[in-house]
Amino acid sequence: MTSVIHGVPSEWCARTLPETPTTERPVAGTAAMQLLVYGADQRSEVLNLWRQLEERLADTPLACSHAWTETWLEVYRDVVRPWFVVGVIENQIHGICLLSESRQARVAGFPVCSLHLGTAGEPHGESVCVEYNDILVTPRHRREFTDRLQQLICLEPGWDQFQLDGIGMDEDSAWPFVPSSGEHSDSLTAKPALQAEIRTRESRYFDLEATRQQGTDVLSQLGKSTRANLKRRLKQIGSIEVEWAENLDQGLDIFEELVRLHQARWNSAGQPGAFASSRFHAFQQKLITRLLPRDQVVLARIKTPQATVGCLYLLVDRNRLLDYVSGFISFEEFPSPGLISHYLCMEAALRRGFDAYDFLVGEKRHKENLGKSLHMLSWQVHERPRLQYKLRNCLRTAKQLLKKALKST
């Protein structure tokens, strides 16, 4: 490891943090962590270190895994500026993460430089919409790495806003950036102080492991009206089955039908659909090719003898299924295709030993009906004082005053 970490030229090495200041106190009996920063030109070398660290750890979050990150960089590195932060203690790596710099956004007509944690910052309409975003770090050194990373980000002068996208808010994924008490945190501070906009959203899920321990099935755990609706619909349908992709060719076949169904449904509603973006399509195809043989993604097709009802593309994240992208037949051709497809896939997932079925964020009726538990995810934008933000705030205030004036007349 020593020969890899030290002596690697990089345009960012000059901004590497120094040794821990005397005001800080490292963990007793251990050396202080240093952060090394590398640019895009060192991508292959850093990704090799990423893979090595991942092999040492258990239960790596998919969104910060080597495979997910490498695939994202293959597709999006020409529209964002990636750089990498590596946490080292006595020449051994204990943490690593991706930071993505983007100039896609504009505020009040002015360009904005955004810095994102992880695989985010893509152009509007092309994003992979990362959720359960995280860093790869040894559990013992998580707080030290995030504290040092926070310090590094605050010292970096180039960005106008720093964004955390889809960050979990439970104790296992705790961040100093994320408020723990429901109040806005001022921990991400620099001179002058930052303004923070924080949104939290529900990610509803069904607890398959709890159902398994109770010796019951999915249907018995659902609400009374949902159970009645499913029983009635399934009785009307008759024969229906779940095709679970067991090899790559089968998975890619299901994926291409999913794309057709997804696009047809969104286009009929006057919307472009996720796969209107060739980058998004390329990312998903590459990811499936890389991860399906490792059982890290699931492609499932729900079908009757007459037609395909729906196709589901789910990510496998620490034995949890994440409902990532789907495509369904139209409501006019088939009643409740989303509800039925997810229910049947949940029953299959229960039999196959998965711990949970997570619907991710978004307001759809089937998520509320089938997702009986929830996690909270956070999206944060930390802004430095800039002219464009002052102009935006003035415009917002003027708009609010105008609304009040119109209401009073």
Could you characterize what this model shows?
The protein has 409 residues and is α+β, with helices and mostly antiparallel strands. It folds into 2 domains: 2-194 and 384-396, Aminopeptidase, CATH 3.40.630; 205-375, 3-Layer(aba) Sandwich (Aminopeptidase), CATH 3.40.630.30. 35% of the residues lie in helices and 24% in strands. The chain contains 11 helices and 15 strands. It has helices spanning 2-5, 43-56, 66-76, 142-155, 208-214, 224-237, 248-268, 278-291, 337-351, 365-370, 387-408; strands at 34-38, 81-89, 92-102, 106-107, 110-111, 114-117, 136-137, 161-168, 195-207, 241-244, 297-303, 308-317, 320-328, 356-358, 373-383. Strands 1, 2, 3, 6, 7, 8, 9, 10, 11, 12, 13, 14 and 15 form a 13-stranded mixed β-sheet that branches. α3 (66-76) runs antiparallel to α8 (278-291). The radius of gyration is 23 Å and the shape is globular. The model is unreliable at 1-29 and 179-186 (pLDDT under 50).
Radius of gyration: 23 Å
The portion of residues assigned to helices is 25-40%
Outline the biggest β-sheet.
13 strands, mixed
Distance N to C terminus: 72 Å
CATH class of the largest domain: Alpha Beta
User: Using DSSP, what is the number of strands?
Assistant: 15
Number of domains: 2
Instruction: Please mark out the parts with pLDDT under 50 across 5 or more consecutive residues, or reply none.
Output: 1-29, 179-186
| DSSP strand content | 15-25%
Helix/strand/pairing class, anyone?
Answer: alpha+beta
Q: CATH topology of the largest domain, which one?
A: Aminopeptidase
Order of helices and strands: HEHHEEEEEEHEEHHEHHEEEHEHEH
Q: What is the global morphology?
A: globular
H/I helix tally:
11
- Based on the structure given, which CATH architecture of the largest domain is correct? 3-Layer(aba) Sandwich
Average pLDDT number: 86
